[in-house]
Design brief:
The protein is of the alpha/beta class. It is built from nine helices and 13 strands. Helix 2 packs across helix 8.
């Protein structure tokens, strides 16, 4: 009798297991999305910065973050924002630590040689002009090229601004001072480590909004049209991924999303809880 009961129990359990295995999965159940890893340097409002009122991945905001979210959604992937220094963003793409970096990049010959570059995307007027800012009390001194003779000009390492200062201001008698992140650069400007700071015009507006003692000088760099818009950095040889990204960029542009994203980013950059925050190469907040 015991053997019969055991046999019946085993049979019932087997039937139950078959039924469970053949039952349709609940929608979303057991699905695991692939992750799209995107490096950003969140010290560059309104492109990418931190909303201190939020936590985790939600704290990263700005035009490029909106773009990253859109790309991930179009690919059907889960977005993972990986914050790090601007230099580290580029290294992370080279080594394959991330899939791409979306961090206010402009075209440069060096980047074209060492990375796959996406098609251009237009982030409002952030890159339309490249300018300089200074303490308000000194700003007028640097309105013309002649004013830079003997001046020390700060620029972010590996940035378009570094190239422009070397090409246009150093020959006029300026010295260049390199900083790793923009937040540190602003502090150095206010301390007097250098007199002028080279920035994209949109970033300059955000810096001035948070630092009323800083002002635009009125100086505007001469720039080639290829520097005006932004692009995404991908690993050299990642041609299929680059083509997929370009198709998504074209879709976003056709839908008129760029203008909305930039307007939202500009508005958010002015709130009290928003800040440019520096991260080290491991993604930790720099002290």
């Amino acid at each position: 009798m015991k053997k019969l009961l055991a046999l019946l129990l085993t049979l019932a359990l087997s039937i139950s297991m078959v039924a469970c295995s053949s039952a349709p999965a609940t929608e979303g159940e057991g699905e695991t999305k692939e992750t799209l890893k995107v490096a950003i340097s969140p010290d560059f409002a309104p492109m990418e910065f931190v909303d201190l009122s939020k936590t985790g991945q939600d704290q990263f905001v700005g035009f490029d973050v909106s773009l990253a979210k859109y790309i991930a959604a179009e690919m059907g992937k889960e977005l993972e924002i990986m914050p790090m220094s601007f230099d580290a963003c580029q290294a992370a793409v080279s080594t394959g630590k991330v899939d791409m970096s979306i961090s206010g990049f402009s075209w440069t010959e060096e980047r074209a040689e060492n990375y796959n570059l996406s098609d251009y995307y237009h982030a409002g007027d952030n890159e339309t002009e490249q300018v300089t800012i200074a303490l308000k009390e000194n700003a007028e001194k640097y309105a013309t090229l002649e004013g830079y003779n003997g001046a020390i000009v700060g620029a972010q390492s590996a940035s378009l601004q570094e190239s422009l200062v070397n090409e246009q201001l150093v020959p006029a008698g300026a010295q260049i001072a390199i900083y790793t992140d923009i937040n540190t650069g602003v502090l150095q400007l206010k301390k007097g480590d250098f007199q002028v700071m080279a920035v994209a015009t949109g970033n300059g507006d955000a810096i001035i909004a948070a630092n009323p003692e800083v002002a635009h000088t009125g100086f505007v760099f001469e720039i080639d049209p290829k520097y005006v818009d932004n692009l995404i950095l991908l690993q050299k040889g990642a041609d299929d991924l680059t083509a997929e990204v370009n198709a998504i960029l074209a879709k976003a542009e056709a839908a008129g999303l760029y203008e909305d994203w930039y307007a939202e980013a500009e508005e958010l950059a002015g709130i009290d809880s928003a800040a440019d925050v520096s991260f080290d190469d491991e993604g930790n907040v720099a002290q």
